[in-house]
Specification:
Layout: E1 2-4, H1 26-39, H2 45-53, E2 59-60, E3 64-65, H3 67-76, E4 81-85, E5 89-92, E6 97-100, H4 104-120, E7 125-131, E8 135-150, E9 153-160, E10 172-175, H5 176-182, E11 183-190
Antiparallel strand pairs: 1-8, 2-3, 4-11, 5-6, 7-8, 7-11, 8-9, 9-10
Length: about 190
């Protein structure tokens, strides 16, 4: 079974690159897609970037936009939104060390089910992953706009990748194992 929302596509390269030759606009391109989807606005991506830079600490130089800033922009344009994290660590207070949590897998599974449910109910989700689902040292925001399942088991997600410099960024598919391994466990959900 396949659910696929029609969400407008926006390239992060529709704005000038920064001094490193990167646009660092993936998150804001996702915000523009969501605002266009819900409100039908047709403002240029550069306007969202300028507005975002007016929000304290929304942009981290050399890294990009944080989810708190992206949520603020969504709300400023009439789209209710919130960010959620699906990570867990075990803080050993006796040794003062941090370890993998035995319940983190449960949080990740809950996050995957929540993303799928939101899309199935007509709401796209912005997720933070690694670039092209394989470049582990490069963080990247994409928008989940579809889900594929086989007998109630989620097999993967469809997404728009605003980093379309070398690929077609529209309606790409990532299998659930790759998503699970490369998703940074952060998501921005739309609240109606």
């Amino acid at each position: 079974m396949k659910t696929l929302l029609y969400v407008p596509f926006v390239s992060q390269y529709s704005v000038p690159r920064d001094e490193d030759g990167l646009s660092r606009a993936c998150g804001m391109a996702c915000v523009k897609k969501v605002v266009d989807f819900y409100q039908g606005e047709d403002r240029p991506l550069s306007d969202y970037m300028k507005e975002g830079k007016m929000i304290r600490d929304a942009f981290i130089p050399g890294i990009g936009w944080n989810h708190k800033g992206l949520v603020a922009i969504l709300r400023n344009h009439g789209v209710g939104a919130y960010s959620e994290e699906f990570r867990s660590v075990f803080n050993d207070i006796e040794t003062g060390t941090i370890h993998s949590s035995p319940i983190e897998a449960d949080h990740i599974d809950r996050g995957i089910r929540k993303i799928a449910s939101e899309v199935q109910h007509g709401r796209p989700v912005i997720v933070s992953g690694v670039k092209q689902w394989k470049e582990k040292d490069k963080f990247h925001d994409m928008i989940i706009l579809g889900v594929e399942s086989d007998r109630r088991v989620i097999t993967g997600f469809y997404y728009h990748d605003p980093d379309d410099e070398n690929i077609d960024g529209r309606n790409n598919f990532v299998d659930i194992k790759t998503f699970r391994d490369c998703w940074r466990k952060f998501a921005i959900f739309i609240s109606e």
